[in-house]
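Subject: complex prediction, re-run

Hi both,

The earlier run crashed halfway through, so I resubmitted it with identical inputs.
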Amino acid sequence: MTYMKLEGLQKSFGKTRVVEHFDLDIGKGEFISLLGPSGCGKTTILRMVAGFESPTAGHISIEGQDITPLRPSQRNIGLVFQSYALFPNLTVAQNVAFGLKVARQKQSVIDQRVADMLALIGLPKLGDRYPYELSGGQQQRVALARALAVRPRVLLLDEPLSALDAKIRVSLRREIRDIQRELGITTIFVTHDQEEALSISDRVVVMNQGRADQVGEPHVIYNHPTTRFVANFVGTLNTFEAVVKDERKGVVTLGDVDLQLTRGALANSKNDKIGLAIRPEGLMLGRQKAPAVTLQATIEDVQFLGSVIRLRAKVVGQSISLDTFNRNNVAPPAIGSVVDVSLHPKDLILLQDSDFT
Amino acid sequence: MKLSRIASWFTFSLGTLFFFLPLLATFEFSLRARRGVYSFDAYQSVLSDPQFRETFIYSIVMALFTIVIGLAIVTPTAFWVRLKLPKLRPYVEFITLLPLVIPPIVIVFGYIRLYNTSSWLPLTGTVTGTNILLMFGYATLSLPYLYRAVDTGLRTIDIRTLTEAAQSLGAGWTTIILRLILPNVLVALLSGAFLTFAIVIGEYVLAALLDRPAFGPYMVWMGGNKAYEPAALAVIAFAITWACMALIQLLTRFSRHAKAPT
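This time it finished cleanly. Structure:
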């Protein structure tokens, strides 16, 4: 059931349209990530939800209530910023209590809630510290506690992990997800980091030039991208251009090899050429049994990464990337050598965008 | 010792002598009121003069009102310009610099012409009205310093994000300004306030032409009529200024949250 609805959202700054016809239904307690490169409009959507930007068109509603005309202070939406935004003149406990004091809660209620929130973020003894006395990770935890203390209807996270170092980023994102699950709070998370989005979200919205290119569960986004942009942006992807040989039977030609795609896969194809993509893990070094097909590849680069060897090779005039496990009795292929690379046609992703004309 | 180090010390000593010798000479002169021995007679004479007390208290009261009015005008303006109207900043800065370009005598004659007894707002007709006029005059004169002090303070914090964080927690504008912005720029506000105080205490033109019993005209009158007392007054004025600067330093040091967030 829909808890929050973003309907036909548009935002223009002067003549520049930043968000175009953005629609999204969010269920109660769902963790949604808006994923995309800089300038794709994801933060603008978040700011429209928070009330800091007014949509040029469209509506935002929570539990059927249209919140579009409400001021930010009237929306009861929690917000965590990339830069923490803790109030430097207040202690940790005062920061967490700020929203409750504004709401004129009783002091006993405030004290209890602050204690609960500090316990929730694992900093029960740091209430008397000032923000500058905390590490980046601790500050962001306090910012999360402050946003949650007022029991918001929705929690917005604007790249909250971007300013932290890699190790803390991983542990904190797990903590954020655990807290979100524990409280069951509907959350929108903005990030440009695909690993972050894929690892903690119920659903991911991949954004491109102000539009939602694809909305889906992380494994669907990764395994079945529907546009070339999503395929390229989420994970590493090798793309090929194939010629349609038999549209009805689903046969295409890649170089001089025929590939049998699933029947009907080409039913909607209007072009002679189609885009095919495959993840590096879908390519195998050496010849494999049918139905796998084998292509000739010339090794261009070898990166030894310990347990994994990352190879770059040229196949059918296209530079591709593939990973192979390191085996202690087999040397990595030499640069310039010609090797066999196999793939299963079922692992191929058919790109359905209009880039292939 | 390296040559560059000697040169540095030489320059520093020269600078110190340049600034302190006249002050030392003034101080020494102020102690010579009694023939043949050093004494504090000049200070005693100044401090026991009822006119000194009256004018000094008058100027202090005026300075306090000026600080309140100046901050009430400047703080929300600087905050709003930084938050919502950053494109207007160069124009606002230009306007705040005008009192440095336009002489006070022009301002005061403008006031007298605009607010005289036959005008639509006859402020010069009453003592209170003239005091109000003088206070706004002082606020205008201190505008370049006050605005810069407040603006510099606002620059040290991310007011946009802090404001948005507070708004998302349900806070309105009054709460944001009083509980977040003001405490975070307190040192800057106090710096501006002390600068305003120093300007008001020494100002002559506005007070003299509006015929108000302020400390500035009193100092000038004293300078023209007495020998040692003006030197004592100058030392007292310096002491007040230094006390203000020391207070700013102390406040900065004891402001626990003044350190930038890491």
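The helical segments of chain A are 42-50, 92-102, 107-120, 136-149, 166-183, 194-200, 218-223, 228-233.

- K.
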